[in-house]
Design brief:
Shape: globular
Helix content: 25-40%
Order of helices and strands: EEEEHEHHHEHEEHHEEEHEHEHEHEEHHH
Oligomer: single chain
Protein name: Capsule polysaccharide biosynthesis protein
Organism: Aquimixticola soesokkakensis
Largest sheet: 7 strands, mixed
Number of helices: 14
Structural class: alpha/beta
């Protein structure tokens, strides 16, 4: 582990004195629907964090574990179905649709009936969450229920996905810092990864280029004033940023192309060209001097490669969605029972004796489980696959 300062991110969350926990409940944003109708979007992520951490937490505490998620297939053991979620939206005076979700997401209070429903789900527990939403964090804080949030880190070019963990409990926050991945460790990885541009790069970017990253339409990071926005609504800011660069490259999101937005941007920025090149290959080249986006994690990642980052969404920072007291980057220590014994030592719940048990580190363990690599695979595992295919 690096001895450089730990990677932590501040938050406006206030610490709580938690009630004693008799169980561990895994959950996440179980009220987030899809853009194609009232279908769950976070059920697989919540089930993943449950399956990943259930055993180490049971070993560390001896407490029973449960899961709260929305899944229309009851065979997956869900506590909520479509009818229940639609009823929650109605009780909040909203239509059950993705356009209403930003209002639910940021809710500071809940109707009494929803509050009672949540109390039955989470009382007498410590909550372990996958990207806990503000409406649930506010509820947990009101009722002095402790939580540990396990969000995926926005830094995604390490040998495996990291977590940005945070808690509403001061003791847990301080304990997390002892496991933090250092800033210099991340910067070192970025430097090594940038060597990918040395070979197989026939079309390098032009000097002093700005890379503009487009994002998906329905995501918490593109919510502004309780509605979804696009880069076109912040075009003046982008134009101002682009004035400091000689060339502009625009890269669509790999999972959601936006040809109309791309076409409009090229109309407003005549010097702009579309690119399909790998983000990490682009940002590794010295000719890409800056990266701009509404709120993409690419902006933060670019800074580790020595590039200037520009958030176009007013007031957005990397810690905007840190729900606990401080966000801390944690690697695969998260799957070790002793990790949980250490961070829960000051929490009012049982903790078993430490045993030193640790699985060997394994590159891409979490990436492969999540079936998501954010294009890192193109410069890593895909190369070996291409070699095998051409053999």
């Amino acid at each position: 582990m690096s001895e450089s300062p730990p990677t932590t991110r501040a938050s406006v969350c206030q610490p709580v004195q938690p009630r004693a926990a008799k169980r561990i409940v895994f959950t996440g944003d179980f009220l987030r629907p899809s853009g194609g109708g009232m279908h769950p979007t976070q059920h697989e992520n919540i089930r993943w964090i449950y399956q990943l951490l259930k055993t180490p937490l049971e070993m560390a505490t001896g407490l029973p574990t449960e899961i709260v998620h929305w899944d229309n297939d009851w065979r997956n053991g869900s506590r909520l179905d479509r009818g229940t979620v639609e009823a929650v939206y109605r009780m909040m005076g909203l239509r059950a649709q993705i356009q209403s979700w930003p209002w639910v997401f940021s809710a500071k209070t809940l109707p009494a009936s929803v509050e009672d429903l949540f109390l039955r789900m989470f009382c007498d527990s410590i909550v372990v969450g996958f990207e806990l939403p503000p409406y649930l964090v506010n509820f947990l804080n009101r009722h002095k229920i402790g939580f540990v949030d396990c969000s995926l880190s926005p830094v995604r070019f390490m040998d495996d996905v990291m977590f940005e963990m945070s808690s509403n409990i001061e003791g847990i926050t301080q304990a997390l810092k002892t496991f933090a991945v250092g800033e210099d460790y991340i910067r070192l990885q970025a430097g090594i990864m940038s060597s990918n541009v040395a070979k197989g790069n026939p079309n390098p970017p032009m000097p002093n280029s700005l890379l503009v990253i487009l994002q998906t339409r329905f995501d918490k990071v593109v919510i502004e004033n309780k509605r979804f926005v696009t880069v076109m609504e912040h075009l003046d800011t982008l134009k101002s940023v682009a004035q400091d660069y000689d060339h502009v490259l625009i890269k669509e999101h790999p999972l959601e192309g936006q040809p109309q937005t791309l076409e409009r941007l090229q109309r407003y920025l005549p010097q702009a060209q579309a690119t399909k090149d790998n983000f990490y290959r682009l940002v590794s080249h010295k000719n890409v001097a800056g990266v701009a986006a509404l709120s993409s994690s690419c902006v933060l990642e670019a800074t580790y490669f020595g590039r200037k980052g520009h958030y176009l969404l007013p007031g957005f920072t990397p810690d905007t969605f840190t729900v606990g007291l401080e966000g801390v980057h944690i690697d695969d220590a998260i799957i070790c029972p002793d990790f949980w014994r250490d961070i829960l030592a000051g929490f009012p719940c049982p903790v078993t004796q430490k045993d030193g048990l640790r699985l060997p580190s394994k590159a891409n363990r979490f990436r492969k489980q999540l079936r998501t690599a954010w294009s890192f695979n193109e410069l890593d595992t895909d190369i070996a696959v291409q070699w095998a295919a051409s053999a």
